[in-house]
Design a protein that fits this description.
CATH topology of the largest domain in chain A: Rossmann fold
Shape of chain A: globular
Largest sheet of chain A: 8 strands, mixed
Number of strands of chain A: 8
CATH architecture of the largest domain in chain A: 3-Layer(aba) Sandwich
Oligomer: homodimer
Strand content of chain A: 5-15%
CATH superfamily of the largest domain in chain A: NAD(P)-binding Rossmann-like Domain
């Protein structure tokens, strides 16, 4: 089965939106990247140029000729109606706020032709949280990517009960065509597959340290040596950033709130937010 | 700090007991391997000879001269009193049944000199479940190894509230001296560190499949690609063997019992017990 998709529009040119747009163009699709202002789109163009360089270094066979070809298939627009006028697929990667998502889908529904499939890259919302803002529940689902899409090339595909099976299968086919390993989910699950696995692991790791059984470096040693994984849970937490587990834990039960309080006291309040801040459970070389 | 340990006696010459004895001898200690009959000790000698070959293939710098030297430092005995007569450290790796463990520690306490430290390799029992069968609560703790000790070289060290801090530190030092990465736990935790992490991950993976969200191969794809790990959770389950999660889940709450029933119906009842049986979540080449 092929996707029968040619023209792709990506809404939002943040970190992941830019990666989705560039990867789709790199795989041969005609891509329009939409964002709300021409100023933001100037930043997007810089991101695309940066991705071209990263691909040349990190992706097998990514010659300058191939990344140039990708850039030639990739245009930008701040006019939503024009950006989606001939789109077979719109991939939405706007900020993770339900009000922004719903507003986006209302405007999109008014502009897009009937053929267009809508896919949300939302990490934290379920497609059923958004579907009522669209005019086409049968042509709406989630298509969820991981950061550094060229290295972590999974695409989780998750519909609502209203998503047409044919649309679902076309989006799975599209994910494969754009170089991803598709991961179809049979029904909605908060966190998809990856976070459904990662959250309990990171929770268990925090429990070991917060409740006084072990130390971050020892926990990471055991995990790396015992499973062969390249990173232990506290190294992963440093990459994710410590605000994320804090926000999840702060809204949980008493045990989770104890973990959140510990994270706040020992890390967040001291500016230790993870790798991006130069320090989290480990200290990082900021010049690296 | 050094361990001040020279003579080590390992009780039990099963898979892991043999590995602990051989690795200790390989690291330069004088080792006695004890088991209950001379017939079993003949099997143990064959295991040691096999480990010498495995080390030559898999351990950097493990020449035949070095594995021969290890074998020369390694003797066997079926006389408990003789085996422990001058032991600085006894590492107990007898079968995982509390009655066998307690009987072993009663006999050991009657035979061993006052200087001897007792360490249990138990995976499933806490040292506090066993300590009352010993005559020396201050010199008793857990020292827990992983299978394929020469590859997965962690040693989890876990005392009871009665363990002397000096004894604890000596055993941590011993673990390092015998080539392990020591993982000290500050207090007792069922499952130590590794299983405290692994069990929630495997539980979450089973939930995704048993309750109809995803498929084993897709879950494993996401985990490997998303985290860089060499094996996904269902590959790990196949190595562990499916009886282990079944036994854990069968004694759990209603949700866990549903998972156990699913494992029984779809795998155990069909003889699919994991990699050792040739099939589990994946099919294996039995000739490999």
């Amino acid at each position: 089965m092929t996707s029968n998709i040619t023209n792709v529009t990506v809404l939002g040119t943040g970190v992941l939106g830019s990666q989705i747009a560039f990867q789709s163009a790199y795989a041969g699709f005609t891509v329009t990247a939409y964002d709300i202002s021409d100023e933001i789109l100037e930043h997007a163009k810089a991101r695309f140029a940066g991705l071209a360089k990263v691909y040349q270094q990190q992706v097998d066979g990514a010659t300058e000729a191939r990344t140039d070809a990708a850039l030639s298939r990739l245009s930008v627009s701040s006019d939503l109606a024009a950006a989606v006028a001939d789109a077979d697929l719109v991939i939405e990667a706007v900020p993770e706020a339900v009000a922004i998502k719903r507003d986006t889908y209302q405007k999109l529904s008014a502009s897009a032709p009937a053929k267009t499939i809508f896919a949300t890259n939302s990490s934290t919302l379920l497609p059923s949280d958004i579907v009522s803002a669209t005019d086409r529940p049968d042509r709406f689902l989630a298509l969820h990517f991981a950061n550094e899409i060229w290295l972590h090339n999974t695409a989780e595909v998750m519909g609502t009960e209203q998503t047409s099976p044919e649309v679902f299968d076309r989006v799975v086919a599209y994910a494969k065509e754009m170089g991803m390993v598709p991961v179809p989910l049979h029904k909605e699950k908060s966190g998809y597959v990856l976070n459904s696995l990662l959250v309990p692991l990171l929770d268990a790791a925090l429990e070991l340290v917060v409740f006084g059984y072990s130390e971050p470096a020892d926990v990471d040693n055991v995990w790396r040596i015992g499973t062969g994984a390249p990173m232990g849970p506290f190294q992963i937490l440093d990459v994710v950033g410590l605000n994320t587990p804090y926000n999840i834990m702060a809204h949980g039960d008493e045990r989770k709130q104890q973990i959140a309080a510990w994270l706040k006291e020992h890390y967040l309040d001291q500016g230790k937010l993870g790798r991006a801040s130069g320090e989290g459970f480990y200290v990082y070389d900021k010049t690296a």
